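Sanity check. The docking grid for adenosine monophosphate depends on where the pocket ends up, so I'm generating a full predicted complex first rather than guessing from homology. Inputs follow.
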Amino acid sequence: MSFDALGLAEPLLRAVREQGYTAPTPIQVDAIPHVLAGRDLLGVAQTGTGKTAAFGLPLLQQLAAKPAKARPGRPRALVLTPTRELAIQIDQSFADYGRHLGLRHAVIFGGVGQAAQEKALRAGLDVLTATPGRLLDLQGQGFVHFDAVELFVLDEADRMLDLGFLPDVRRVLQHLPKQRQSLFFSATMPPSITALAATILTEPVRVEVVPESTPAERILQRVLFVDPDGKKEVIAKLVSDPRVDRALVFTRTNHRANRVAQLLERAGVKAAAIHGNTSQNARQRALEGFRDGTTPVLVATDIAARGIDVEGISHVVNFDLPNVPESYVHRIGRTARAGASGMALSLCDREEIAFLRDIEKLIGKRIDVAGDRIGLPDDVLQPGPLGAERRQQAAPKAGGGGKRSGRRGGRRRP
Ligand code: AMP
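Predicted complex below; grid placement will be based on this.
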């Protein structure tokens, strides 16, 4: 399947080519023709599937097909998304995909001063990407009006719910014109989200991609059994290997993220940490360095890593294994995005063996063993099969008679 077959106009096809996309992802194939035809859409998909282009490209085409002067504070398309980071990324995608169309776009989110956002709104715009709280603030102050909205996108609806944004989302909905096209995306569809979708969408087309419990086939997964104290040594060796272009390292806690970044820096590896306590500015700086390659290693907690969209992550390293097996699938999905292949390496100490088994149960297979507690084998980063004997090597016995470690405060379900 090629982009040309989806009914997109030339300026968009050109922009997509310039982005280096050669073929549409499954959700793009399924969604784009329906959105172009004016249908409402219910997309069950997570970040990393190409969903931004799945709604962004046809949305831009719809707007370009009916040229209108960009008006101050009156967007024709409104995209609601839960976090600042996603908002910035989506707005950047509109810039990239819309570069040959001359449409105007702006982004607003909380946690920063509002003057620049007021100015962007006053300058006139076609597409507005926003987080709900700041959007309502600015609407309350009269800087933005919803009466011209023809296209509405609700992104990451399940996270809106998690983060307590549902009342804000409902308030925005009350102000939207009844006559509009709506697109709704969520990674999961619990009953509350299905009910919300039903209030927003009219006879939607449903498009669904890969269930969450299945990591992409292309991701090569390996586990290294290490002593708890051995992790520090192994991590520095691993990420300084020349085969590692860009590594995202996961830790269990904020504190451990900082410690790992510091120990990597001491070992001469450029690394930055992001976690729940990182200020917005420091976070942006860390992400920029990671994107432009000046900081090839980013250490993060699960929460901090959600929504990060950086291309070319060659390796995901689990410094700590997650106690929630689904998090493993989310984590390793950061590599091997949109067609690329990648590698996921997990350091596992005695106390984490129960977590490893839970993960293997969820993904339905054993993860190849790449090393024992003695050291880092040379071929750990080599793609392709490992030595037969290592593959079969039994895992060390879990500490405490195989019981789960109490250290993590037991097991949580998301
Ligand atoms: P998303 O799910 O929208 O966050 O997209 C995930 C990543 O895939 C982004 O870095 C996009 O730039 C990239 N991407 C989206 N569509 C394609 C495509 N058709 N081919 C290659 N990369 C893509």
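Relevant for the grid: Residues 399-414 have pLDDT under 50 and may be disordered.
Also worth noting: The longest helix spans residues 51-65.
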